[in-house]
Amino acid sequence: MSSSNPLARILDTNRLTGTNYKNWLQNLRIVLNSEKLTHVLDQEAPELPARLSADQRATLEKWINENNKAKCYILASMSNDLQQQHEDMRNAKEMLILQSLPDSYGQFIMNYYMNKIDATLPELLNMLPKHFILWLWQTEIRLLEYGLKNF
User: Fold this and answer.
1) Are 7 and 56 members of one domain?
2) With CB atoms 3.0 to 4.6 Å apart as the test, which of 21, 33, 49, 123 could cross-link to 119 if both were Cys?
């Protein structure tokens, strides 16, 4: 990854492979912080009315440009497989949500990618508890079945 930011080199040597999420995120935040871009990970896009003033349009365009730059840093620092899975996501924050989920959400993540679910970030977050409840219910049934077979 060549960049005018010398700190960006740490992302070359610490690419996200799936198992190193915590370390990768720490390095990513260092680079994004040096570029003054971490707010796109921590905040939602600005809510703006249908008719934009010149100032509102400038604010939105600034956020879009900063979000796109952060997405480029994120994608460039991922393995090729992860890049393909994340390249169509709308914003940088959404890219990190799925990667941060524990292994127990593997089925949810696989369904998200396989079905090409097009959800806003709030919709994605609302899906997670439902999936967790389903996972818990399925796990409980498997445990009951196991117990009945081995009783």
Assistant:
1) yes
2) 123
